[in-house]
């Protein structure tokens, strides 16, 4: 016979979900403090992901940290799922699948360590999440600051993902490429097109990877430069024509002339 939950259990479950929804999506001071704590833990975890190739030589200490972080990430994913209104729509989000893959690399480090460099993608997903900007503060949400931070996060994420790939696939294949710092050095010199030539990736695939790093790096640098230099805009949809971005002090829409009332959070 299938087990049935009692009304008391159902009520307890709804209270837990309501509590988690208030913490993850609410605007109370307690909710903001809770999200700040989660963000600090996330940043520490990302730091571990970046240092993982160096820490792997620590043996059981590395694997202990790996499983502790796996437990934290699993608990966070479960809490986010319970806080979401529709579980099916939550599972359709690409960010969720990225986090699930990261969790798999943490749970099975001996088998999936070669894919561990993809864990740094969590930096990009974190910076591009509503969770991050609701916590950091509405003062910066949908502003020029957000655009700059997102462009910088994309560049930093690419640098460490490319470094991890070069380290995993090519370390030991060139006399100058012997460790993680060498892989980072090669990635930075390649994406800045400096190309000192002291470290080269061997074979045709090495040349292809070098080309991809250079082209992608230049593109991300240009995007960051454009974001820094262009005039700041604020996200505020025009109620008439739907234009999304306006000058922070705009009182009329440039497209249709509709009057605007853009909130000012400085006071």
Automatic annotation (TrEMBL):
On whether Secreted is a keyword of this UniProt record, the answer is: no
Gene3D superfamilies documented for this protein:
1.10.287.70
Mind listing the UniProt keywords for this protein, alphabetically?
Ion channel, Ion transport, Membrane, Transmembrane, Transmembrane helix, Transport
Q: Which residues cross the membrane?
A: 36-55, 61-83, 95-113, 148-170, 204-224
Q: What is this protein called?
A: Voltage-gated potassium channel
Biological processes per GO annotation: monoatomic ion transmembrane transport
Species of the source: Brevundimonas halotolerans
Domain spans labelled Potassium channel: 157-223
SUPFAM superfamilies xrefs: Voltage-gated potassium channels (SSF81324)
A Pfam family hit: Ion_trans_2
């Amino acid at each position: 016979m299938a087990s049935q939950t009692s009304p008391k259990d159902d009520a307890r479950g709804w209270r837990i979900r309501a509590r988690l929804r208030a913490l993850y999506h609410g605007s109370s001071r307690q909710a903001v403090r809770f999200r700040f704590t989660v963000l600090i833990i996330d940043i520490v975890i990302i730091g571990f992901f970046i240092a993982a190739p160096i820490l792997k030589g620590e043996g059981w200490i590395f694997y202990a940290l790996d499983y502790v972080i796996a437990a934290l990430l699993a608990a966070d994913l479960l809490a986010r799922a319970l806080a979401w209104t529709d579980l099916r729509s939550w599972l359709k989000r690409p960010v969720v699948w990225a986090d699930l893959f990261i969790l798999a690399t943490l749970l099975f480090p001996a088998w999936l360590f070669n894919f561990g460099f993809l864990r740094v993608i969590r930096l990009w997903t974190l910076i591009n999440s509503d969770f991050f900007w609701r916590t950091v503060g509405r003062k910066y949400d949908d502003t020029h600051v957000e655009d700059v931070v997102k462009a910088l996060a994309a560049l930093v994420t690419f640098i460490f993902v490319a470094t991890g790939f070069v380290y995993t696939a090519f370390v030991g294949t060139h006399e100058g490429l012997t460790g993680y710092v060498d892989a980072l050095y090669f990635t930075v010199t390649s994406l800045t097109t400096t190309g000192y030539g002291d470290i080269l990736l061997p074979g045709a695939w090495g040349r292809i990877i070098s080309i991809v790093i250079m082209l992608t790096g230049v593109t991300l640098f240009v995007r960051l430069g454009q974001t820094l230099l262009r005039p700041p805009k604020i996200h505020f949809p025009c109620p008439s024509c739907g234009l999304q971005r306006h000058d922070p002090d705009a009182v009329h829409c440039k497209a249709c002339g509709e009057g605007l009332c853009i909130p000012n959070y400085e006071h």
